[in-house]
Q: What sequence folds into this?
């Protein structure tokens, strides 16, 4: 994929970033939400411009975006030193390297701030993505939004 840039998120990215989050959840995570209206409402509840700006203003959150040409095609964040809070790719850009580029930047950031391990909770949809990138199951699934489940994963980081 040409012209992919991963960079720090900016306030002016908020509306497009929220669009990426909402589209990825509604279109890409069907196996998780199964079109259940309550599950979708719960999952999408905090995917708003206001919440994005709050994440951006939180000093312990590293919020990044992937841009292809002039379009935002991915959003990711790591909280604290080592917990991936979100990683979403715009439908139409799956399996193009966007998710891998975002994940690599989150891992680099975690190493830079001294983390030795990264943790996350994956959707059913994203499990194989994380496993391909060296993440291992770190426990039993937990309740997610509505009918969805969150699968704990972890990866040791090598310096």
A:
């Amino acid at each position: 994929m040409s012209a992919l840039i991963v960079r720090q998120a900016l306030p002016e990215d908020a509306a497009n970033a929220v669009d990426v989050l909402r589209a990825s959840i509604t279109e890409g995570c069907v196996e998780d939400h199964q079109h259940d209206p309550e599950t979708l409402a719960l999952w999408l509840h905090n995917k708003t411009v206001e919440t994005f700006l709050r994440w951006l203003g939180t000093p312990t959150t590293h919020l990044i975006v992937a841009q292809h040409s002039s379009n935002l095609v991915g959003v990711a964040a790591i909280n604290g030193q080592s917990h991936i809070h979100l990683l979403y790719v715009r439908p139409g850009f799956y399996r193009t390297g966007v998710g891998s580029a975002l994940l690599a930047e989150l891992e680099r950031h975690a190493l830079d701030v001294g983390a030795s391990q990264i943790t996350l909770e994956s959707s059913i949809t994203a499990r194989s993505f994380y496993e391909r990138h060296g993440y291992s199951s770190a426990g039993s699934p937990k309740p997610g939004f509505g009918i969805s489940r969150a699968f704990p994963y972890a990866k040791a980081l090598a310096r």
